[in-house]
Design brief:
Radius of gyration: 16 Å
Strand order of the largest sheet: 1-2-5-13-7-11-10
């Protein structure tokens, strides 16, 4: 099964590159580009505009058990038709190829790589429009959102076995003065 997924991902990547959608290693959707260039996971596909009705949807395959970082860059100046300008609805579909089950999953926003987002940097998980109905997971029924002293979403109360997937949905507000920010993604495994 895992071999078939790798073959399918390779064909999909070749098709996207030949179509000119991933020439610079970035994937484009809405007003942003997304990159897996720091490693530990791979973007398999991306679609959507970022609105409530048409979220940006990123399909990813995780090989690592440690936190990985998705690089998000502002790609254009066109206004999204979201509730709050400079914000977007994101859905992340993650396939667990790490070899171990996950018992939780976390997301953290960072304006500066390696430094957690704070109250003043302009990044948040929908803090300006805190519609908790946009925060969801297909495998983890419980979530905790932390706005201070960092912006973090933690999901738990379920599990994702190897080769299975989990879907996550949330709203990101981006009113930062910088063109690049980071979304750290962290699968959590049982302690032994």
């Amino acid at each position: 099964m895992a071999r078939h997924l790798r073959i399918l991902a390779a064909f999909l990547s070749l098709a996207l590159i030949s179509a000119g959608l991933a020439d610079d290693g970035r994937w484009y959707a809405g007003d942003y580009s997304f990159s897996d260039e720091l490693g530990g996971f791979r973007i398999l596909s991306i679609s959507g505009s970022g609105t409530r009705d048409d979220p940006i949807e990123i399909h990813e395959m995780f090989n690592a058990l440690s936190p990985v970082t998705l690089i998000i860059r502002a790609a254009g100046q066109s206004a999204l038709k979201t509730t709050v300008p400079g914000s977007f609805h994101l859905r992340v579909i993650v396939v667990n190829q790490s070899g171990l089950a996950w018992i939780g999953f976390g997301f953290e926003l960072q304006e500066v790589k390696g430094k957690p987002s704070d109250f003043y940097d302009g990044l948040s998980f929908g803090q300006v429009d805190p519609d908790s109905s946009l925060i969801s997971s297909s495998r983890f029924p419980h979530f905790e959102s932390r706005f201070e002293s960092f912006d973090r979403l933690n999901f738990d109360g379920g599990h994702v076995d190897p080769t299975q997937r989990s879907d996550f949905g949330f709203f990101i507000t981006d009113v930062t003065p910088v063109a690049t920010f980071y979304l750290v993604q962290e699968p959590r495994i049982p302690a032994s």
